[in-house]
Amino acid sequence: MTGVQFAGILIGAALLVLGCACVLASMLRPRRGGRVLLAFGVSVGLYGTRLLALQAPVQTTIGGPGLRWAYLVLFITYVINVPLAYFVESVIGPGWKNSSRWSSRAVLAFAIGAILIELLLERPGLAARSNRWLVLTLVSITVANIIHVSASGRARTMLTDRVVLLGAAIFALFVINENVGKPVLSGTNVEPIGLLAFVLCLGYAVVRSVFLEETEFAVIQRELETARRIQMSLLPQRIPRNAGLDIAVRFVPMTAVAGDIYDVVQLGPSCIGILVADVSGHGVPAALVASMVKVAFSAQGDHAHDPAQVLSSMNQILCRHLEHAYVTAVYAVVDTDRQTITIANAGHPQALVHLRGQTALVEQGHGVMLGFFPDATYTNSDIVSFAPGDRLLLYSDGVLEARNHAGHFFDGQRVARWLSEVEHNTAEQLAETAFGELTRWTGGRFDDDVTFVIAEHPASRTSGSAQDSTRDF
């Protein structure tokens, strides 16, 4: 075995292993990233296989007629252009006037035609010269498109990285040298060395990109955690207990931060105000708007006993600050001494009440969402005789729209059964059972933020200490 053959076997084996690793890695990547890795892995793997097949020691070790090895090398030579073209297209896009996309289709058609013609005519190498011109054309189109991408100021791609461009230039020069008759180093095939240089440069760029992405991801995660802590600090830290109401809450953000917001405030010795609001959208933008909703609600101390006025004032504040979002909300004031509930709604799912053994939706004017019309008005609905044993449920649409594996919604009838059919001694037990049923329905995966507040007038009224109060308006 000569030194050149040994080097060819070593480089070919390394490229084959690298190509297989890239193909396996492509199965673990997101869809677009997976296509890039797959095309690159197939290209490198095929090149490594062809390089091994060209080595006499490999042919001797495996055995077989020389014609079969000749066909294998030629067919790989024709086919390898296909994943290479698709790799370029995946990285830089369709190219100027879709030239990259048409190149991908052209090399695929050529590979199929060349293989079929040589098999039918039994003339291996018949399309080799045409393939050389095709490769030179493909290289020219790729270089032109990379220059076009760089000059047009479009987003940088992996192929426009300076290190990758250097490796690609070396590889392109070696490919051109090989396909125009080896005017330089005529006795040596330097194309594999060029590919190895390109792969090493590309690998360096990929590793650097991964480290940068991981660093950015860590920063984003820290910022999200900070945002989550800030949002949680805006929620009631303790639920008021000294108004003769037993209250339980479940608040489950779909992501690190939520577009849902709730509040429970003490309005008097026997009076509690309960707000549940839902911002359109998800994630950080929705969470920022939810913080604005909290601030707007906190400014309603002068008329906190009047839900309709609270929603009207909040709507005027939000209309001045919101542009591309809206908020639905429901606000209820519960007075246990008077045994009444006063409630107003702004485009939110209707509240449920369980009175004297019967569960029903609260019939009320369904006001428009907050943040759209500054002059919108809202109306109060009064529920009298909220007696011991009765219950009130406020919730966000994440409860109704929770879906099971078959895509069916949880819907309002199942929610209504929480108030009438779940055996419990406390509101906390009722909330735990209800949320357990919702979790089993969805398999623990929610498509939206989930928030609900249960307020029960216990049969045996007890009073908590003043330190349990969240805050007083």
Describe the structure in your own words.
This protein has 473 residues and is an alpha+beta fold. The chain folds into two domains: 3-218; 237-468, PPM-type phosphatase domain (Phosphatase 2c, domain 1). Helix content is 53%, strand content 14%. It has 14 helices and eleven strands. It has helices at 3-26, 31-53, 56-62, 66-79, 81-92, 99-121, 128-151, 162-179, 191-234, 283-298, 307-321, 397-400, 411-421, 427-442, and strands at 246-252, 260-268, 271-279, 327-335, 340-346, 352-355, 358-361, 366-367, 381-384, 391-395, 450-456. The strands form two sheets. Strands 2, 3, 4, 5, 8 and 9 form a six-stranded mixed β-sheet that branches. Helix 2 (31-53) packs antiparallel against helix 4 and helix 5 packs antiparallel against helix 6. It is elongated, with a radius of gyration of 34 Å. It starts with a helix and ends in a 17-residue tail after the last strand. The model is unreliable at 461-473 (pLDDT under 50).
Instruction: Give the helix tally.
Output: 14
Round the Cα radius of gyration to an integer and report it.
34 Å
Provide the CATH topology of the largest domain.
Phosphatase 2c, domain 1
Q: How can the largest sheet be summarized?
A: 6 strands, mixed
- Number of domain units: 2
Contiguous uncertain segments of 5+ residues? 461-473
- Structural class, judged by helices and strands? alpha+beta
In whole angstroms, the N-to-C terminal distance is 90 Å
Can you identify the CATH class of the largest domain? Answer: Alpha Beta
Strand content: 5-15%
**CATH architecture identity of the largest domain:** 4-Layer Sandwich
Number of strands: 11
CATH H-level name of the largest domain... which superfamily? Answer: PPM-type phosphatase domain
Sequence of secondary-structure elements: HHHHHHHHHEEEHHEEEEEEEHHHE
Shape type: elongated
